[in-house]
Amino acid sequence: MKVMQTITDYIMKSILTTRGDLVMRGAAVPERLAGVALGQVLKSGGVGADLAWGVPSLGNMNFETGSITRSSSGAEVITGVGFQPSLVIFLFRDNATANVNIGTGFDYLTKRICSYIGSDGTEVQTGSAFSIMVLRDGSNYITALISALGADGFTVTYSLTGTCASVTHWLAIG
After folding, report:
1. How far is it, in rounded angstroms, from Cα 4 to Cα 1?
2. Alpha-carbon distance 135 to 117, whole Å?
3. pLDDT in 10s for each residue of the chain, 174 residues
4. Domains in the chain, please, with CATH?
5. Cβ atoms within 10 A of the Cβ of 125, count?
6. Residues in contact with 110: Cβ distance below 8 Å, sequence separation at least 6, in sequence order
């Protein structure tokens, strides 16, 4: 027990000089990895390489795209994404070509928001209850939100009032 304490004290006094420092195994001995500026993340160089701090980039993230056309209530299970999304961005429009109803939405299961142009083509609405909202009129609309995230995709649950349909393009980021 005393030997472990001596080793721990030595590492703390000789290697860890600043709050935020980390100890990592270097090529042969424990080494100090100094803390860095706010916003940097710890990155792995792979097996046999040192850890390093770096700026997070979208190039290191997973992306997948797809589309859904829906004109009924119920769940649309999206699989084959290859990862669990952290965020899904939706671009949607009314399926009817005569309607101007378009919008965008963002959803990550616990938080969501959408912004859309309503039935007359000039009314802009925003809301946090849904990530998709196509509004033909007060009695014909379709709404949707992410109801589940999975290791290989997500589930979008739709609710339809009257008759309406949406064509939705999605971008999953993880």
Report:
1. 5
2. 8
3. 577 777 767 766 777 778 888 888 888 878 888 888 787 888 888 888 888 888 877 777 899 999 999 999 999 999 999 999 999 999 999 987 777 789 999 999 999 999 998 766 667 788 899 999 998 888 989 999 999 999 999 999 999 999 999 999 999 998
4. 2-56 (no CATH), 60-173 (2.60.40)
5. 12
6. none
Angle (nearest 5°) at CA 161 between 160 and 162? 115
Q: Which residue has the tokens 């390093």?
A: 52
**Cβ atoms of residues 158 and 143 within 8 Å:** yes
Specify the amino acid at residue 39.
Answer: G
- Cα 5 from Cα 106, distance rounded (Å): 51
pTM score, two decimals?
0.70
